[in-house]
Specification:
Number of helices: 7
Largest sheet: 5 strands, mixed
CATH superfamily of the largest domain: lpxc deacetylase, domain 2
Radius of gyration: 19 Å
Mean pLDDT: 92
CATH architecture of the largest domain: 2-Layer Sandwich
Strand order of the largest sheet: 2-3-9-4-5
Distance between the termini: 28 Å
Number of strands: 20
Order of helices and strands: EEEEEEEEHEHEEEEEEHEHEHEEHEH
CATH class of the largest domain: Alpha Beta
Length: 307
């Protein structure tokens, strides 16, 4: 158990959107306790909490929307914040997509580390899984089950000589996130590029921000950062997607051939089955911040089940 954390100062980064190919800039700012992670579109005066209520199904990325505004490809910056245990932050956004940077979460991690974190005078609540919850779609599945710690086991399978079947288990901590997960980049297949472009996707993809696979190897001259970089990146994505739950979790997530859509379905299923979890480290709710509203809904769900 721990206190909440936020950024010690403001940081800015710019790049291009992976799918739009358009310039994109974000500003990460400190936020008060119980704020959670909130995206802010200043020129439209719209704030969008990073919450499953605002999730919108989108091809090949994670997106949220509110009042007609949509922000895409949020999973990597959310992953970095969750991985480093940043509980409260504002993310000012220009454009409708988060910059892809180098295709991993490492640039966001370096930005956050450059200013540091500060502890806040509120405890961080946790959702502890007490019984398994699972979502299955054909050969794809994702499940969360009881565990004394937060842990993720991911398995992928691709018909490619550099991937085949890869499985990796990650025990959640800020140190492990930086050393094992953050550097893993997004990846794609050379034979799919034209099809992506025809659907208006991947317009900003380059060898500087994507691991591109030919039929037999890696197109990027720099090669891979890890032999199993592919499954590590899937864990990176899951961490970002799962942060839409709105609070930290204690449990073991097991994913097989999963993806953004199934990750979000598991978050929704958790909220639909309050009999299978308990809330820990909660404090009285003092105001209507995004996180305190989330906690109020979670507590109400748990209370209704107990009646």
């Amino acid at each position: 158990m721990r206190n909440q954390q936020t950024l010690a100062a403001t940081v800015v980064c710019s790049g291009i959107g992976l799918h739009s190919g358009q310039p994109a800039t974000i500003t990460l700012r400190p936020a008060p306790p119980d704020t959670g992670i909130v995206f802010v579109v200043a020129d439209r005066n719209v704030s969008i909490p990073a919450s499953i209520e605002h999730y919108i199904p989108t091809e090949l990325c994670t997106a949220i929307h509110r009042q007609g505004i949509q922000i895409k490809t949020i999973e990597h910056v959310l992953s970095a914040l969750a991985g480093l245990e940043v509980d409260n932050a504002y993310i000012d956004v220009s454009g409708d997509e988060i910059p892809i940077m180098d295709g991993s979460a490492a640039p966001f991690v370096r930005l956050i580390r450059s200013v540091g974190l500060v502890q806040q005078n509120r405890q961080q609540p946790f959702l502890k899984i007490m019984a398994p919850i699972e979502v299955v779609e054909g050969t794809k599945r994702v499940r969360i089950e009881p565990s004394p710690i937060a842990r993720i086991t991911y398995s992928i399978q691709y018909d490619h000589p550099l991937i085949n079947t890869q499985t990796y288990t990650y025990e959640c901590s800020s140190h492990a996130y930086e050393s094992q997960i953050a550097e893993a980049r997004t990846f794609g297949f050379l034979h799919e590029v034209q099809a992506l472009w025809s659907r208006g996707l991947g317009k900003g993809g380059t060898l500087e921000n994507t691991v591109v696979l030919s039929k037999s190897g890696v197109v990027n001259q720099s090669g891979l950062r890890f032999l199993n970089e592919f499954v590590r990146h899937k864990i990176l994505d899951l961490i970002g997607d799962f942060s839409l739950l709105g609070i930290s979790f204690i449990g073991h997530i097991i994913a097989e051939r999963s993806g953004h859509a199934l990750h979000s379905q598991l978050v929704k299923r958790i909220l639909e089955e309050p009999e299978k979890w308990v809330l820990l480290n909660t404090e009285p709710l003092e105001d209507e911040t995004p996180l305190s509203l989330r906690m109020a809904r979670l507590q109400s769900a748990a209370l209704l089940h107990s009646l």
